């Protein structure tokens, strides 16, 4: 199904189909930094958890790496607790997952 007017917005803008303006986050800009941070954290805690299958987008790769880092963190520091990935990712990224720029 084709949505009329969808081509007016950049494909990496998460606020589509609204206009990209103030507050619009283009995840590709942060995806590389988030990916590096996730990989570094996972390697430091449990390198066996690193994702081995590349995703179609840089953001997909970043989310995989952050999920691996979250699982490694949970296993290392709270192994007796149920795994809650999004809260762990939020703590790891300092709540800046969708911020305009990310630097650990």
Task: Work out the strand percent.
Answer: under 5%
Total tally of structural domains:
1
Number of strands: 0
Helical content stands at 40-55%
Helix and strand succession? HHH
Oligomer: single chain
What structural class should be given to the helix and strand makeup?
A: mainly alpha
Query: How many helices does DSSP assign?
Result: 3
Q: Per the principal axes of the C-alpha atoms, what is the gross shape?
A: globular
Q: How far is the first residue's CA from the last residue's CA?
A: 39 Å
Whole-number mean pLDDT: 78
Specify the biggest β-sheet: none
Radius of gyration, in Å, reads: 16 Å
Layout of strands and helices, then pairs:
Blueprint: H1 27-45, H2 58-77, H3 85-92
Structure write-up:
- The protein is mostly helical and 104 residues long.
- It has one domain (10-16, 25-92).
- The protein is 45% helix and 0% strand.
- It has 3 helices and no strands.
- The longest helix is centred in the middle third of the chain and has 20 residues, at 58-77.
- The model is unreliable at 1-7 and 15-19 (pLDDT under 50).
């Amino acid at each position: 199904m084709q949505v009329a007017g969808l081509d007016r917005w950049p494909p990496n803008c998460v606020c589509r189909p609204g206009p990209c303006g103030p507050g619009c986050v283009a995840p590709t800009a942060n995806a590389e930094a988030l990916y590096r941070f996730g990989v570094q954290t996972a390697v430091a805690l449990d390198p066996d958890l690193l994702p081995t299958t590349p995703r179609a987008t840089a953001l997909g790769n970043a989310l995989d790496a952050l999920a691996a880092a979250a699982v490694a963190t949970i296993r290392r520091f709270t192994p007796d607790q149920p795994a809650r990935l999004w809260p762990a990712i939020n703590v790891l990224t300092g709540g800046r997952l969708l911020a305009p720029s990310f630097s650990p």
